[in-house]
Specification:
Blueprint (H helix, E strand, L loop, with lengths): L1 E10 L1 H8 L9 E5 L23 E5 L7 H7 L4 E9 L15 E4 L5 E9 L18 H20 L5 H15 L4 E7 L4 E4 L7 E4 L3 E5 L44 E2 L6 E4 L2 E5 L11 H12 L2
Antiparallel strand pairs: 1-4, 1-10, 2-3, 2-4, 5-6, 6-7, 7-8, 8-12, 9-10, 9-11, 12-13
Helix pairs in contact: 3-4
Length: about 300
């Protein structure tokens, strides 16, 4: 998973290109939801972003392997200046390899707000998700998470009889994640055209790196990030969750870039960002996911169609 939340456009071509290089282990498709692409005009001047986030993302998906797909190469051949974006490369666990199962997934709530989700992990058991199998376009558990989230948002909107405020939307997200993460691997990046929601409950699943005016999130510690303007040594107010006590976690993966600026996203804690700043933070749940033999067998049976 990869995401950016920034107050100003950042050129991300090399970041995404390096992220796509991990498609050898995640070969089952890719996708990009771009909420703020800007092409730098001659002279390198950034085109100003719109004052209001777009209601829907520019969404591109493909079931091909990202590092060899001509479509991905064509997109990255032009400078991409992003403020907010979600990018995903897929290792299929639940759901076959096809376009409808490629992340990101999108859905629109009753107030007209579009929600976009990418997920790394697996929901092994959560009965409230089961009926969404008959409503979704694809067959992934990830899409079912999004549909359940939007339904929860709609229910809260009906109770209030008005569109939800940012803190109310965060509360709905946090409550759902608390339920889902018990016994399941739920690492999420979700954007609602205003807030970028973040959650991790598996070791090594997601890292963040603060920029001068924003924050990057990625499963891998991308070396290309060192070329970007970094935040100062003193944390900016609300810029990132540095103040959190360090959660127990495994050592970085052997192929991780040796960049101390990348840090693990706090475990089992819902976060929300706006324009690169941390604006909401939930309470830790303790619902860390650990690999186990029974769940591994479940994945094999599902993918093999047994």
């Amino acid at each position: 998973m990869f995401a950016i939340s920034s107050a100003s456009p950042v050129e991300v071509n090399e970041l995404i290109r390096e992220f796509f290089s991990h498609a050898d282990k995640n070969p089952h498709g890719w996708g990009l939801a771009d909420f703020s692409t800007r092409t730098a005009p001659s002279g390198g001047v950034h085109t100003p972003s719109q004052a209001t986030p777009p209601p829907t993302p520019a969404l591109i998906r493909s079931p091909e392997r990202a590092d060899t797909d001509p479509l991905a190469a064509r997109i990255l051949s032009q400078p991409l200046y992003l403020e907010t974006a979600l990018v995903h490369i897929r290792q299929a666990t639940i759901g076959q390899v096809e376009m409808d199962n490629c992340h990101p997934f999108t859905a629109t709530d009753m107030s007209g707000r579009t929600w976009t989700l990418i997920h790394k992990g697996t929901v092994f058991t959560h009965p409230p998700l089961d009926h969404y199998f008959y409503l979704q376009r694809g067959t992934t558990d990830s899409e079912r998470i999004l549909l359940a989230l939007v339904d929860r948002i709609n229910e809260a909107t009906e109770r209030k009889a008005a569109p939800l405020e940012a803190d109310e939307r965060f509360e709905v997200f946090d409550r759902l994640v608390r339920e889902l993460s018990l016994g399941n691997c739920v690492n999420l990046l979700v954007y609602d055209s205003d807030l970028l929601y973040v959650h991790r409950n598996y070791r090594g699943a997601l890292h963040y790196r603060r920029l001068a005016e924003g924050v990057l999130f990625c499963t891998s510690k991308l070396a290309a990030a060192t070329a970007l303007p970094a935040a100062g040594t003193a944390p900016a107010d609300g810029a990132a969750p540095d103040a959190a006590p360090p959660a127990p976690d495994a050592a970085p993966a052997p192929d991780a870039a040796p960049d101390a600026a990348w840090k693990p996203v706090p475990l089992c804690t819902s976060l929300a960002y706006s324009a690169g700043k941390l604006v909401h933070r939930g309470k830790p749940t303790g619902n860390q996911y650990f690999d186990n033999e029974l769940d591994t067998r479940y994945l094999y049976w599902d993918f093999a169609g047994l």
